[in-house]
């Protein structure tokens, strides 16, 4: 019974469900649910997803991201062009006071491009989110399989 408990606890920790949100108290910004999809080698990009919560009383702008695994990191948005779904760079994204930005498959997402190495299922990678006021928040993203739909799927 104890072994099952500890295996379950380990699985939840690896899925990021026990991870505390990363919080920049002075800026009123919190990052939760950081996860990523594994890449198919290094020639194809990987994707990552986070939720950014702005608890302050003023808007904040996400201006960029960095990660040690990628030479280029951008927020993209999936948009519909007629009957075709396309991805396009989103540029800076303003998060209103008391608002949130949920990155998820089929919407806003982080593209990890120019990979320096393959991103593998089961590892944890670090994402650094940069905001217009100079705040930087680092979040640990658990890497799921290439077709994962969420941090536990």
Automatic annotation (TrEMBL):
Pfam families: PCuAC. Gene3D superfamilies: PCu(A)C copper chaperone. Keywords: Signal. Residues 1-24 form the signal peptide. InterPro entries: LpqE-like, Lxx211020-like, PCuAC_sf. It comes from the Bacteria. This is Copper chaperone PCu(A)C. It comes from Ferrovibrio xuzhouensis.
């Amino acid at each position: 019974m104890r072994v099952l408990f500890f295996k379950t606890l380990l699985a939840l920790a690896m899925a990021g469900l026990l991870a505390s949100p990363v919080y920049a108290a002075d800026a009123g910004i919190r990052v939760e649910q950081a996860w990523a999809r594994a890449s198919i080698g290094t020639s194809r990009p990987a994707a990552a997803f986070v939720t950014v919560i702005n608890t302050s009383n003023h808007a904040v702008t996400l201006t960029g991201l960095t990660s040690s695994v990628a030479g280029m990191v951008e927020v993209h948005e999936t948009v519909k062009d007629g009957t075709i779904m396309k991805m396009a760079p989103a540029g800076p994204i303003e998060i209103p006071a008391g608002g949130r930005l949920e990155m998820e498959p089929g919407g806003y997402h982080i593209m990890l491009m120019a990979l320096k190495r393959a991103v593998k299922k089961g590892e944890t990678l670090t994402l650094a989110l940069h905001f217009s006021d100079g705040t930087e928040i680092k979040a640990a993203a658990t890497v799921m399989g290439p077709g994962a739909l969420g941090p536990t799927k």
